[in-house]
């Protein structure tokens, strides 16, 4: 059965779902895990989202994550390796009606780590972008209720532009800080 694409209003409970899951993930990854970030739409208060909590663990050594694959499977995750992004470990939980996704990066991979955090923080800070993104996601979910590829393809141009704006703002803030 294909994944059902559903976009729902923001749920405050997602923060607690993330907190509990991040503790379990930290335990499964052991001392290699430096931090777990809540990313994606469920990390942005007020943003409509697919009810899938995205976690981004940052680890000291990415290779050591592979040795912990069984501990992550014991939490219910499907371990998919890089899954299209070199230097990442991607996992998902919940099958076709997925509940969690995990994107693991090594601490030195600032490009991918900053990209995810910048988009999250930009959406938190910019209501107009958040509302436009929510409207697009609702429209695409209605148009592609059982076509996750169509849904993702429909978001791609918006997300790329959003990422560019978020990274530009992030860089400008760093320059001001320096």
TrEMBL record:
A Pfam match is: GrpB
State the SUPFAM superfamilies in the record. Answer: Nucleotidyltransferase
Q: Which InterPro entries match?
A: GrpB/CoaE (IPR007344), NT_sf (IPR043519)
Superkingdom is Bacteria
Q: Which PANTHER family match?
A: GRPB DOMAIN PROTEIN (AFU_ORTHOLOGUE AFUA_1G01530) (PTHR34822), GRPB FAMILY PROTEIN (PTHR34822:SF1)
Protein name as it appears in the record: GrpB family protein
UniProt source species: Pusillibacter faecalis
